[in-house]
Design brief:
411 residues, alpha/beta, 15 helices, single chain
Length: 411
């Protein structure tokens, strides 16, 4: 091999290679979701025979914990760019120690612009939504090293899978009421007629859109007004899209819950006291951490999922619910359609203005015959065990790092 293409030698002790560690970095996370992801991904790497270490940035001892890692580091990995700002001698830590960093973004790029564009010598970026790559490359205009789309996964958490007929919860939903629609609407007034028109055109088109991403609709509305997305600063782009996204999420959750009619549902989340359509069929309980969520899913017949503005991805509510043996009811989008078959692995509903005309009847039909419901739950669980377990994602990451090494040699 040509000397220029040789990789640096690994440390050797008494003729044996030191076992390098994959270092997983924990940061803050609402309801501990991403922190649990790190725990389960760490377990998956171990199942594949990898040596791992977990660094928790929420602990004061994290620097000392980093120093104690022996045997070398294969790569760092975190969700949503947690830990990227770690420094050593006024330089990024990862550049100083010459170790690759894997950043797995589970949210749309406009939420994490600074972290996504953070410059490092060896960095591999994954998105959980295939359409995020389109936004990343077209708007950023500075391609970086990226991996394939890496969908969210899950694993069985409950010790025993309880039969559907023995589960106490018929229909559950996990999600908070972010604010009232009125409050979210007021935030979309920017004091400029043209800009307000662009924003509200995006909102009206995006409320019931199931095929395209929010940023694609927003770009179309901007261009129709004579504005061009590439001239908009990343900070302002992120502000506008996050405000629009927040309003649409609130609207969709309100719209779906109103459409339930008299179907009983148990809702785990905060802020629902400002929901204007509370009825006697709705039981509201406080939000639970993601440590508790899978156990409640394991006691639920059907888990309702209302997708965020993510048309080409899978939400963890689905994978974790299926792994715990629950059936899932989710709005029909391309990302789910390509992975799960309606009536076989999952139940879909169409997000539409007239959802209330059919939704309660659909739910009563699903819950009215437990044998077919059990079959769908079993089929969904079998499929996620085969394709959407954390060990599958761990293997993709390991393989991608091997390709990344070659890319670095060729630079």
């Amino acid at each position: 091999m040509h000397p220029a293409l040789k990789s640096p030698q690994k440390p050797v002790v008494q003729g044996k290679k030191l076992s390098q560690k994959i270092v997983l970095v924990k940061g803050g996370s609402q309801y501990d979701v991403l922190r649990i992801f790190i725990d389960h991904l760490a377990e998956a790497f171990q199942e594949l025979g990898e040596n791992i270490a977990v660094i928790d940035l929420n602990q004061e001892s994290y620097i000392e914990d980093l120093k104690k890692i022996s045997g070398g580091i294969k790569f760092f990995i975190s969700f949503n760019g947690n830990g990227l700002s770690l420094m050593c001698h006024d330089k990024p830590l990862y550049d100083v120690i010459k170790v690759p960093v894997v950043s797995w973004f589970v949210d749309h790029p406009f939420y994490h612009w600074d972290r996504i564009t953070y410059a490092l010598e060896q960095r591999l970026v994954f998105f959980s939504n295939q359409n995020s790559f389109d936004f990343y490359f077209s708007y950023l205009r500075k391609p970086a090293t990226v991996g394939d789309c890496l969908q969210l996964a899950g694993r069985q958490v409950v010790k025993e899978i309880v039969p559907i007929a023995e589960r106490p919860y018929d229909l559950v939903f996990f999600g908070s009421c972010l604010s009232s629609l009125k409050e979210a609407e007021e935030k979309l007034d920017y004091g400029n007629k043209i800009l307000n028109t662009v924003v509200w055109d995006t909102v009206e088109r995006g409320k019931f859109e199931t095929e395209r991403e929010l940023h694609q609709i927003f770009f179309e509305c901007m261009e129709a007004a004579g504005l061009y997305p590439l001239e908009l600063s990343p900070e302002k782009m992120g502000c506008l899209l996050s405000d629009i996204d927040r309003y649409i999420r609130i609207y969709r959750r309100n719209h779906v819950l109103k459409a339930l009619g008299d179907c009983p549902i148990t809702i785990f989340g905060n802020g629902w006291e400002q929901f204007e359509h509370r009825t006697g069929n709705m039981t509201f309980l406080p939000a639970v951490s993601f440590t508790e969520t899978p156990h409640i899913m394991g006691q639920s017949k059907v888990v309702l999922n209302i997708m965020p503005n993510n048309r080409a991805g899978i939400h963890e509510r689905l994978t974790y619910a299926m792994h715990q043996g629950a059936a899932c009811l989710s709005e029909d989008i391309p990302g789910l359609r390509s992975e799960f078959q309606h009536g076989k692995h999952i139940f879909n509903f169409q997000m539409s203005p007239d959802l209330a005309d059919t939704f309660s009847d659909q739910i009563r039909t699903i819950l009215g015959d437990l044998d077919p419901l059990q079959q769908v739950a079993d089929a969904g669980r079998n499929l996620v065990n085969e394709k959407h377990h954390w060990r599958h994602r761990a293997q993709v990451i390991i393989d991608a790092l091997e390709v990344h090494k070659v890319a670095m040699l060729l630079k």
